[in-house]
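Long-time lurker, finally posting.

We've been working with UTP--glucose-1-phosphate uridylyltransferase (Amazonocrinis nigriterrae CENA67) and I want a structural starting point before designing mutants. I don't trust myself to interpret raw outputs, so I'm hoping someone here can both generate the structure tokens and explain anything notable. Sequence follows.
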Amino acid sequence: MYKDKVRKAVIPAAGFGTRLFPATKVVKKELFPIIDRDGKAKPVILAIIEEAISAGITEIGIVVQPDDVAIFTDLFKNPLSKELFQKLSPQNQEYSQYLQDLGSKIVILTQEKQEGYGHAVFCAKDWVQNEPFLLMLSDHVYRSDTEISCSRQILDVYEQVNQSVVSLTIMPETMLYKAGCVKGVWQDLNSDLNSILTVTQVYEKPSIEYARQHLHVEGMAENEFLCVFGLYVLTPKIFDCLAENINKNLRYRGEFQLTTTLDNLRQKEGMTGYFVKGKCFDTGMPDAYRQTIIDFR
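Top reply, 14 upvotes:
Generated this for you. Predicted structure of UTP--glucose-1-phosphate uridylyltransferase:
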């Protein structure tokens, strides 16, 4: 149905970062620093882009507010001044050149009006065209438990099943208020939970009562549920589903969301869930960001 190899990644980064205010009044949350495994202080979005590149992605579209185009262009496209470049260590001079090379793989896209995460994804439609793509949250970074990166794991599953794939992790019921939740049937219950799921429902931030009644997955503890890990491989059919919601003005809490649209996509084409062998680190809230600073390296 679609080509097997996924070449493009989309990173929506047009939010206001209200949960990290007032810091986000002067610094975009995607540019908050973290210390990576290599000991370098990097903006969060750079770690995300490197995750995508390591998985074999060759083109990356970052969706930003129009007023922020210059900021992201400066990071990835503009070279340092000669004076500043000469002040860097030889290793950082080399890294500066690496950033320029990375910039050649990056396209800056815009969301003219901030109307939700699903709307931001829709703004990448013309750039993505008729291809499957990797969708990445702009405030999550990942660390694989294996030699295969988290993004590569989900891309490998897509190449097996040739339909949209949502990455999954386990969350206690007390955390459901902040996550999209998935129900489905394990394709091989005899293996461990690091396996593939046929998705039968996707639900945005369910109540504990709803989850207990409708979203429990066989083989899991009563108070644990499968939630979205933050990585997706989506077919271009998602844009038709989003367009339908936008044209009908179907909003969730005032915005065009992605998770509710994912269930429409599942109904049209089917969907696979994959329990990722790895950890997801949230940088979008103060306490979570603090913990990421401690744990990510």
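Before you design anything, note these points.
The domain at 8-295 is CATH 3.90.550.10 (Spore Coat Polysaccharide Biosynthesis Protein SpsA; Chain A).
The mean pLDDT is 89.
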